[in-house]
Design goal:
The protein is α/β, with parallel strands linked by helices. The protein is built from 15 helices and 19 strands. Helices cover 35% and strands 25% of the residues. Strand 1, helix 1 and strand 2 form a beta-alpha-beta unit. The longest helix has 15 residues. The structure holds flavin mononucleotide. This is Coenzyme A biosynthesis bifunctional protein CoaBC.
Length: 396
């Protein structure tokens, strides 16, 4: 679980998006977090403390004068054990308080009194006109400058009936942001290019040859890299996966398209990770029209031509980024993977057994570099992706 053992202080202020915060709290609990809720009086007009208390299993605090857990001072004590303070939804009014250091209720005073090292995450939610106001934008800039991580807002249809910026992010996106905020920033300010998924090589306009790669490993690495603070571009073959939050995704179909996309994005990258299962061959005699059955029962003959080796071309550039390859083998992993690393001239190669992991949510990885091998034991692809990013950061 991504928030195992983490203590999150969740503050709710008086916006209509409070209804989403019930689901958000549950999502964090499902990931292993303990969630302590504090609500403004405004928030209590939108959702009852009872709901939040029942969902989180903890007393909800709201009043700085009356609420005194264990005879202590709630504005000081509630954040002392917290791993993060998250305000969702955050009203325009509360943003103004944060920007100006006001402490006129429990939640705003608690934000002032929180220890400086704790991640402070704010999810604005308001009507589009409120969001656009120069005062709100000034407050936004001030809050960011003061170190808050602002998530969203999203754009779209609003509860007031208007369309524009100001919607609070969905609970799943906010969950991803909180998880990311708690990861070590080992790739801060780094740029990283990742390929993922299979390629699709056409036979004719309606058929093609592909492979069983789902893209899950590459997408997990893209997510882990952005959690670690990198700016991530993901060049993806056809997959059914959602783009990880804050990752710039470029969709391609064929190996040639993937090569072209990699080449056009490679400059200024610090790291290139080739996770995609790129087809070794494409159909040389692909048809412009759908190939029809013929009455004699003749079957079409396909001819193949070799696809470019994207990873080897990047590794051979005059000033290449740090290159990491993936080898999906079906046997003799250790032998084939080390051979592949040397042939491609790359510092780090990650081996896995293709047919045991394609499409699955877990994997086992073996890292090969000049010093030897390192096994990352069986685990979820997301966990392994974070471990791999840590290993790459150590080698830069
Ligand atoms: C029905 C209704 C919906 C509201 N929705 C929002 C909202 O989404 N965002 C916001 O900034 N203010 C919203 N407001 C205004 C705030 O509730 C108001 O500014 C309040 O003083 C905020 O108090 P708080 O920041 O202490 O919670 C809404 C008010 C009403 C009556």
């Amino acid at each position: 679980m991504d928030l195992s053992g983490k203590k999150i202080l969740l503050g709710l202020t008086g916006g209509i998006a409070c209804y989403k915060s019930a689901e958000f709290a549950r999502a964090m609990i499902k990931e292993g977090a303990t969630v302590q809720v504090v609500m403004t009086d405004g928030a209590k007009e939108f959702i009852t403390p009872l709901t939040m208390q029942a969902l989180t299993g903890h007393t909800v605090y709201s009043n700085q004068w009356d609420d005194q857990p264990d005879n202590k001072m709630p504005h000081i004590d509630l954040t002392r054990q917290a791993d993060a303070v998250v305000i969702a939804p955050c009203t325009a009014n509360f943003m103004s308080k944060l920007a100006n250091g006001l402490g006129d209720d429990l939640l705003s005073t608690l934000c002032l009194a929180r220890p400086a090292h704790i991640p402070f995450i704010v999810a604005p939610a308001m009507n589009a006109e409120m969001w656009k106001k120069p005062a709100t934008q000034r407050n936004l800039n001030q809050i960011k400058e003061d170190g808050a991580l602002v998530m969203g807002p999203a754009s779209g249809f609003q509860a007031c009936g208007e369309i524009g910026d100001g919607r609070m992010l969905e609970p799943a996106q906010m969950l991803e942001e909180v998880i990311a905020a708690l990861q070590p920033k080992v790739l801060k300010n780094r740029r990283i290019l990742i390929t993922a998924g299979p390629t699709f090589e056409p036979i004719d306009p309606v058929r093609g040859i592909t492979n069983r790669s789902s893209g899950k490993m590459g997408y997990a690495i893209a997510r882990a890299a952005r959690e670690a603070g990198a700016s991530v571009t993901l060049i993806s073959g056809p997959t059914a996966l959602d783009t990880p939050y804050h990752v710039n995704r470029v969709d391609v179909m064929t190996a040639i398209e993937m090569r072209d996309a990699v080449m056009s994005h490679i400059s200024h990258q610090d790291i290139f990770i080739s996770v995609a299962a790129v087809a070794d061959w494409r159909v040389a005699n692909a048809s412009d029209q759908k190939i029809k059955k013929n009455k004699n029962g003749d079957t079409p003959t396909l001819e193949f031509t070799e696809n470019p080796d994207i990873l080897a071309s990047i590794a051979a550039l005059p000033d290449p980024p740090y290159c990491v390859g993936f080898a999906a083998e079906s046997e003799k992993l250790r032998q084939h993977a080390e051979e592949k690393r040397r042939k491609k001239g790359i510092p780090l190669l990650v081996g896995n057994i293709g047919h045991e992991t394609f499409g699955k949510d877990d994997n086992t990885l073996i890292l090969f570099d000049d010093t030897g091998t390192l096994e990352l034991p069986h685990g979820s692809k997301q966990l392994l992706a974070r471990q791999l990013i840590e290993q790459i950061a150590k080698r830069l």
